[in-house]
Specification:
The structure holds 2 protein chains of 2 kinds. By secondary structure, chain A is mainly α. Chain A contains 13 helices and 2 strands. In chain A, helix 1 packs across helix 9, helix 5 crosses helix 7 and helix 7 runs antiparallel to helix 9. Classes of the chains: A mainly alpha, B mainly alpha. Chains A and B meet through helix 2, strand 1, helix 8, helix 9 and helix 13 of A and helix 2, helix 3, helix 5, helix 8 and helix 11 of B.
Amino acid sequence: MRGFLSLIAVLAIVLAAWTGALATGLRWPLAVLLPAASALVFVAGTVRRVLTWANSPVPFRIPVTCGQQASLPWLQANRFDNPATTTCVVVRMALEVLLFRSLARNVRAELGPARLVYRDAAALWAAALAFHYSLLVVVVRHLRLVAEPVPALVTALASLDSFFQVGVPAVYATDVVLVAALGYLLSRRFRSPQVRSLSLFGDYFFLFLLLGIATTGLLMRHVVRVDLVSVKELATSLVMFSSPPVAASLHPLVFAHLALVSTLVACLPFTKLSHMAGVFLSPTRNLANNNRATRHVSPWQDAVKVHTYREWEEEFREKLIAAGLPVEGRGDHA
Amino acid sequence: MPDPRPSQPTGVDYGRTAGPARRAPLEDARVEFRKGNFSYAAPARTSALLDLPNPRDWQPTDADWKLPANWKRIILDGMAERLRRYRSFRLFMDICVRCGACADKCHFYLGSGDPKNMPVLRAELLRSVYRRYFTLSGRLFGSLAGARALTEDVVKEWFYYFYQCTECRRCAVFCPYGIDTAEVTMIGRELLNLVGCNINWVVDPAAKCDRVGNHLGIPPHAFKDSIDFAVDELQEITGIRVEAPINRKGAEVLFVVPSADYFASPHYYTLLGYLMVLHEAGIDYTFSAYASEGGNFGLFSSHAMTKRLNAKIYAEARRLGVKWILGGECGHMWRVIHQYMDTMNGPADFLEVPVSPATGTRFAHAASTRMLHVAELSADLIRHGRLALDPSRNARWKVTFHDSCNPSRAMGLLEEPRYILRHACNEFHEMPENTIRERTFCCGSGAGLGTDENLDMRLRGGFPRANAVRHVRERHGVNCVACICAIDKATLPTLFDYWVPGVEVAGVHELLGNALVMKGEKPRTTDLRGEPLGRPQASGDRPSDPGTSGRSDAGHVP
């Protein structure tokens, strides 16, 4: 139901943009105002969100340790899964952000006839990695729309990406991977009873949204063949903060694509997509496990009442003396 | 004879987790408190002893929980305050993508099949309320954005599920963002604490720790009796009379152990082991009757209570004038000592960096907190050849090691105990990789849940651990699970009796004590349990008194 609603929502965005593209008066707001506004929302929202996180204190150093601590010199410490220094923390974070280290540990537990069994579950990790990296390549490839001359890196990446030379114009490998990975991530939200039960509207929505973005993009490249010159003209002026002409030749698909991307970008700071920034700030990952070697100072302290030794001895003094235990009070004991 | 025990938890089918396909689990907050799946509430009297807010007499099974009139305001203000004070809490409320990697990592989910025991949904219990009152999207879009209103049913649901989490952090190992359900549960329990919803087996031990010094409320003279008894018994076994002073000023080391070590079985044999090792190593130490508890039941209640109880250790170290502190085998105690003590009650600049008098090793990794784990001390002693060991004295044990949650996932104390076991025992077998080290499974009874009334849920939660033990029992004939946690020692025997009978639980220092050849000892005929040396144990033979080993914890009165 939530999945279905999400699909409807994405289709509604496409339909609205398409209809708008057909109305002359709405073409400029849709092609210029909407992307500009969403970019603004994205920047302001992300700054605000990150500042909120960064301004929340980290009162305790609470790394989750995933390997042997650095204790006795002759015991081999696990430097990156249980980092003791800042350098090792940087490596741990790099492994986390670039290779999704923790997700790579994933196994699936199943209750067999007589026991629990653990099966390999690398598919989620592989799909997540495939999705994020292909999205990165796709975003980098889009730079050719805003940069003149097109940077050599972008051209090289694009030619590498179309290495297999299938179709005209050549199909980008990352496009295929992106759609396949999204398809997998979406399908498991329907197939797996566990994941289905924990998925919210937003979880389906962003997957459908990304699929929508990919689909409209693919249609523009391989089916409709939009007027690339006017697209580039529009994109270049947008990033230069100038108000561009919206060419009459622009296909409604461009508007749909832009509307979907604008939605994604605007939602980024306010939804689960903020994990993009948050992953760097997680105190269970980005702190060194050197707790006993270096004191961590909290910016605040709870004022607590402590039952002091004096109060304690006051209550138990007779019993302490009777048991032959030393006491401080009364002066009858040195 | 037919085995009366089920081979797996009854009524669990992960395939049916979702329930009716169209219904999200969070749409219905109602929970059913049944015999065996919850812990009793803390009464007004004990709550008042610790100055806890809104103390009253109530039980989870009551229809009316007698929440204070402005309970909603209290909770929402409490949330706002904690969002300001903890980046962890705010971040974990914001960034979860619900990928589900954590879903089947929780022992309570694996044992109960209850979807809200999936760590992601346990966090959503709070997150949904956070969205409704603290985010724009939640206010605007309500349930579509995963937001829901805070109702009395939600409070009951929180109580049910935040006291169905042992703060073991296994899910956090697998989470791509390191979202730590222990943080969420701790905050959830603090919020419940504000409206006077606490469980007795957290508040009562905390109150006793506060006033008397340990969680069983053992007064100082009884504590001394217990230690003296251990010294006598050790003399009987080894012929050597060791020193075990209490509250002695001028000792070099303050030794703090979980109180179960001197009052419960099989913990007690570990205490004997400590006394032997400290004697052999010539450590000049003292116990304290004022700070006679390493375990910190405050951790299961609130950060403030953690600090309040933990403060006694440094205070006592200062009063006694010791140079450094040694800590015994305990799980959550070490979470507090390793990750909280120095920050909460430090700096310990009145102490010195721990140095082993026997080996000269300077323990630089404890240079600030100045507290050493006894397994670190012993491993160093063995490494330097300062302990003569005869592993054949443990011949009746085929041993495996159960990593306790906190030493493994909040510290990384993995190899020290293994190093000791490999030197103290001839047969040591690891459980499967997915169930040890940082992936270890909780006993299912930690974080204050080890009560008799909660037994059904404990046995379910302990199922994944027991399942791995059964694997090595069948494959290698393992009959002894060694561990370094007092709650494990108290609750694993019950668990194994149910799931995998014939497996005993022992502290690492018990097995080390068995193997330790003391200078000048008399010919040893028995191990620390009084069993004849070297006799391989027959399956199902239980030498320890079932009357004590089967209980959740000595002295616990529900």
